Amino acid sequence: AQSVTQPDIHITVSEGASLELRCNYSYGATPYLFWYVQSPGQGLQLLLKYFSGDTLVQGIKGFEAEFKRSQSSFNLRKPSVHWSDAAEYFCAVGNSGGGADGLTFGKGTHLIIQP
Amino acid sequence: DSGVTQTPKHLITATGQRVTLRCSPRSGDLSVYWYQQSLDQGLQFLIQYYNGEERAKGNILERFSAQQFPDLHSELNLSSLELGDSALYFCASSVERGGDTQYFGPGTRLTVL
Questions:
Q1: Which of B53, B60, B104, B108 to mutate to test the interface with A (most CBs of A within 10 A)?
Q2: Residue B14 — pLDDT band, cuts 50, 70, 90?
Q3: Closest by alpha carbon to A27, among A97, A107, A110?
Q4: Which residues of A8-43 are buried (b: 16+ CB within 10 A; e: fewer)?
Q5: Residue B98 — pLDDT band, cuts 50, 70, 90?
Q6: Residue B2: its pLDDT value, please?
Q7: Most-buried pick from A41, B3, B38, B107 (CB within 10 A)?
């Protein structure tokens, strides 16, 4: 069965500093990978996705993520965080075989921005 | 705004009761997915419908059921509610039967007292 691990429950970063959120997955083939962000009281907003091709993918709000097959990782990065980036971030894996499964999510990383 | 709408935004009810949550997918999307988000279980996939037919089941309790109507909106029915059913319920939609991007609605917060 597929699974996603986000090792960091909380991360605190100073405004303007760089950010990396870790995500490791377990999946039998090449997965579909996603990062979603959830602000307090809000739904899930898609930041970026990887289906195939270039392993470095660009997303919205200045985020990027790199798919590394050898490490089974899909870490999210941002060069300079803003206070508005404070939120809960979820990594998810989907079925690349075209099958009808829902997404499997990690437990999330809570990002705190220090002024 | 993802284009997925969910009603109601909040729902407060008592144990043993039954509630219905409603979801309208993005225009053109044929798949609807339901997820439950709770503090102890995190985000869990419940069930998927594609063009009116059940397509996949996840960790959905027997007390829960769903359907997708000809106009593609979907309803999630929760019955014999327990305190532990208190959670945020999300609907997501996508174009295909599976293997593509899911767009999430704002969620319905259910509180069971």
A1: B104
A2: very high
A3: A97
A4: eeeeebeeeeebebbbbbebeeebbbbbbbbeeeeb
A5: confident
A6: 87
A7: B107
- Say how many C-beta atoms besides its own lie within 10 A of residue A80's C-beta: 12
Show residues of chain A in contact with B47, CB under 8 Å: 102
Asked if B40 contacts B23 with a C-beta cutoff of 8 angstroms, the reply is no
3-state helix, strand, coil in chain B (%, to 5): 5, 55, 45
Residue with tokens 């709408």: B5
DSSP type of residue B41: T
Q: Is B91 on the interface with A (CB under 8 A)?
A: no
Lowest mean pLDDT of A29-33, A105-109, B8-12, B27-31, name the range. A29-33
Amino acid at A90: F
The pLDDT score that the predictor gives to residue A97 is: 64
Non-local CB neighbours of B110 within 8 Å, separated by 6+ positions: B11, B13, B19, B21, B78, B85, B86, B87, B88, B89
Give yes or no for a contact between A21 and A76, defined as CB atoms under 8 angstroms apart.
Answer: yes
